[in-house]
Amino acid sequence: MAHETVYCIGIDIGGTKISLGVFDSNGLLYGQIQNVPVPFDEKKVADPNRMINLITPFIEDAQNHYSPLIGIGLSICGNVDKHTGEAVLTPNLHWRNVPFGAMVQRAFHLPVFAGTDVRAATLAERLWGVARNARFFAWCTVGTGYGGYLFLDGKLYDGYHGFAGPFGHITWDEEGYPCGCGRRGCFETFVAGPAIARAGQAAVDAGHSPLMASLSQGGRVTTQVVIQAYYQNDAAAVSIIEQVARLIAINLSGLVNALDLEMIVLGGGVIQACPKLLDRIDHHIRYHLMSDEARRDLRLEQETFVNSALYGAAADVFVRSGVIHEALGA
Ligand SMILES: [Zn+2]
């Protein structure tokens, strides 16, 4: 029996850009992913009304070309109430209690399904990606931030308050660097993109890396510069990335030891720019695993999609509207 193809729009709102795409329930992307910059006001607060204006041409075009279009999936970089679509706390956008889901619904007269980006990415990897048959895995992103989400015993794991997942805020050094979460010394402050750039800058300031100094052309050392130098075997850059791999391995091994995971899917800007980091984490993590079984079976995989959260926004629409009949806890 042939099934009618149904479509939805996925939208991923990141800290700097908004990505949009049209998808079917097999996770197929129609046309190209469109990107528009997040519009910020003079106080560096993202402007939700201008955001809706910016995405309107794309959505109207999709409404004209794809039918039936059953909804809009919204993935947002922060805490989102999945029932109301309210962006409860999104530090990168400087949003607190913005009813963005309801605003999008009013603007386009389509059902809206909103959620946190890491949760969406986890769903996409489980439904259409490398974790397709996994029952116990973690999604881990290394980019501007570091953290992820859990999929346990066949379901997305939300926790008691719905706050489960941010393992980047496990403390590594209680007297360490201040963290965006308000505490100190979280793993994120040692391994995310800004930490890599900071370590690169320190190496240049100490005169340890003429290569990174020349690649930054007199400006601040960026994460990209450290990665570029790493791929050219610069000793200082190699030691920075090696230390990042070691700390991520310690952090993730804690999850695997506590939760008996079978797989970790790693994504985000740093992993995309530096896939060798994944191999180094894979190398170091074996040392910290408790059981021979985990050492033998644990798989570390790179994310399947260019933007797993965008695919996940679409997946969320199909799962929560019942087009995809899988009880994944979405
Ligand atoms: Zn923190």
TrEMBL record:
Stated name of the protein: ROK family protein
Organism listed in the record: Thermanaerothrix solaris
Sections of the chain in a coiled coil: none
Signal peptide feature range: none
Pfam families (UniProt xref): ROK
Protein family according to the UniProt entry: Belongs to the ROK (NagC/XylR) family.
